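To close the chapter, one final illustration. This time we ask the reader to focus less on the individual chains and more on the assembly as a whole: which components sit near each other, and how the overall shape emerges from the parts.
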Amino acid sequence: MTPRHAPVALWLAAGLLAAGASAAPDPAALQRGEQVYARCAACHAIEGNRTGPQHCGLWGRRAGTAQGYSTYSKALRDSAIVWDERSLNVFLKDPMKTVPGTAMGYAGVKDDGERADLIAWLKEATRPGKACQLVP
Ligand code: HEC
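The assembled structure is written out below.
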C-alpha cells in the first residue's frame, strides 16, 4: 500500500469501528438495565416460572405462551402480541393500560431511558440456550 492510500484505509477502519460500536450493546446501558430488572424480580425470573412467567426465550414469542406457565390471563393470551423491542416498550410503560385485564399488577417503567436500558439488557439475558435455559 502506498502512503497515498493510507488515509482511505484509516477512514474505512474508523467507519467500521463506529458501525460496530453502535451495533453492539453499550455495557453501561446493560448494567443499568439489569438494575431496573430488580423491580421485576419480585415476580419474575429469567429462568423459571414464578408469580410471573419465565423470561428466557422472550424475543419472538407470542404473549401468553411461556412453557410451563399456566396462570395467564385471558386478556394476555388473546392479545396477539409478539414480544420484541417495540411491543415491550409499549407494554412495559403501562402494562395495565396496554393489556386491560392483565394479571401483571405493576404500574410500569415510566422513564424512557430506564425502559430502553431494561429492554436492551432483557434482549441479551433472554437468549435461550445462550444466556439462559428454558425451564419446562
Ligand atoms: C407484581 C408482580 C409482577 C411484577 C412486579 C412484574 N410482573 Fe411481569 N408479569 C406478571 C404476571 C402475573 C404476568 C402474567 C400476566 C397475564 O397473564 O396477564 C406477567 C407477564 C409479563 C410479560 C408477558 C410474558 C409472556 O410470557 O407473555 C412480560 C414481558 C413481563 N411480565 C415483563 C415484566 C418486566 C420487564 C417487569 C419489570 C419491569 C415485570 N414484568 C414486573 C407479574 C409481574
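Residues 39-40, 42-44, 51-53, 63-64, 66, 72-73, 75-76, 83, 92, 102-106, 109 surround heme C (CB under 6 Å). The domain at 26-125 is CATH 1.10.760.10 (Cytochrome Bc1 Complex; Chain D, domain 2). With these observations in hand, you are ready for the problems at the end of the chapter.
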